[in-house]
Amino acid sequence: MKFVKALLSLLVLLLFVGGAALGGGWLWFQNEITKAGPSTQEHVFVVEPGETLSSVAVRLEQEGIVSDDRLIRLKARLDGTELAIKTGEFILEPQASIASVMDVLIEGKSVLHKITLPEGRTTAQLLKIIEADPILTGAMPETEVPEGSLLPDTYLFQRGTTRMQLVERVQKAQSAVLEELWAGRAEDLPVASPEDAVILASIVEKETGVFGERAKIAGLFVTRLKRGMRLESDPTIIYGISKGEPLYNKRGQRRTLYRSEIDRKTDWNTYQIDGLPKTPICNPGREAIAAVLNPDETGHIFFVADGKGGHLFAKTLAEHNRNVAAYRKYEREEIQRERAGE
Asked: Which residues does the UniProt site feature Important for catalytic activity point to (predicted)?
């Protein structure tokens, strides 16, 4: 009986010592994963697609963000989060603990990059911007991207996004905006389809960059179409010549249109063809599409640049001729001021 009691006492003692050791080990582990890390500066850390936790842990130690990659693997094993880390680009704060590093890689938001696609650019010009972006990956689309099928805007994306994915996203955005705005269009518009709306919006976009003028110019073009008048828009001539690229003289300077170019018939030259051009002449933004589908009803059928970034509008040819004369006078005065300044 005494032997049994002694054995039980020994077992109790061993359990106590083992429990104490286990508890001490757990406390040590918790302290190690929650204490400040060795890094003294902010890090941008990238987890590549398909990368394993082990390789991520090794790189975190190599870059001086954590002191021991084995602790990361142990924590992930205990938490069951070995496969939970996200692909992306993350900001890790100075002295980030192992626990906080794991939280960022599992639950945190990755860094977002942005790309701006301006209104009024042709598809070829916008694709060049996408192709040149240093963060996007992969090849450009092999199939033709139609003119006017991209929605100009600023887009946010994560590292690892491909150029194909971004182009598809921009096209879907244009389709969504067009569907939304077409449903709320005004009645009796001389545009038979959403595609026609994009064509007319592309002309409006090229004619003015002034936000408040889009609906007025759209209304002017709608009025001309309703009256059977030609649109007579200079940007449509340029698109038929150079697909929207600027025109230059032999000295490499930007130039205006030649009379022969105005008289040249193409599928886009609205001085020579009735109705709308064959395709859009650029990628219009949301505001230009909205303006075409709900234009101002002003009765204007003529407009000319005012020399200050906007336009002068007229309902009659006589009024338009006076506006043209005013613009030419403004031009002459500007030339004189420039010469006086020289």
From this structure: 207
| Average of per-residue pLDDT values in the chain | 88
Cβ-based neighbours of 154, under 8 Å, separated by 6 or more: 114, 115, 116, 117
The structural domains of the chain, with segments of one domain joined by +, span 32-110, 112-173, 189-341
Assess contact for 61 and 45: CB atoms under 8 A: no
DSSP assigned state of 244: T
Instruction: Give me the mean pLDDT over the 257-281 stretch.
Output: 95
Distance separating alpha carbons of residues 273 and 266, to the nearest angstrom? 8
- CATH architecture for the domain at 32-110: 2-Layer Sandwich (3.30)
In the DSSP assignment, the letter for residue 212 is G
Using CA atoms, how far apart are residues 323 and 307, in angstroms rounded to an integer? 11
- pLDDT greater than 60 at residue 2: no
pLDDT of residue 20: 47
- Give 223's pLDDT tier (boundaries 50, 70, 90): very high
Distance between CA atoms of residues 25 and 36, nearest Å: 19
Cβ neighbourhood burial of 167 (10 Å; 0-12, 13-18, 19+): buried
Q: What's the rounded Cα separation, in Å, for the pair 288 and 206?
A: 10
| Cα(171)–Cα(151) distance, integer angstroms | 6
Q: 3-class DSSP state for residue 32?
A: helix
- Number of neighbours of residue 145 by Cβ within 10 angstroms: 19
pLDDT in tens, 31-61: 788 888 898 998 888 898 888 989 998 999 9
Q: What is the pTM of this model?
A: 0.80
- What are all long-range contacts of 142-147, with beta carbons under 8 Å and residues at least 24 apart? 145/171, 146/279, 147/122, 147/123, 147/202, 147/279, 147/280, 147/281, 147/282, 147/283
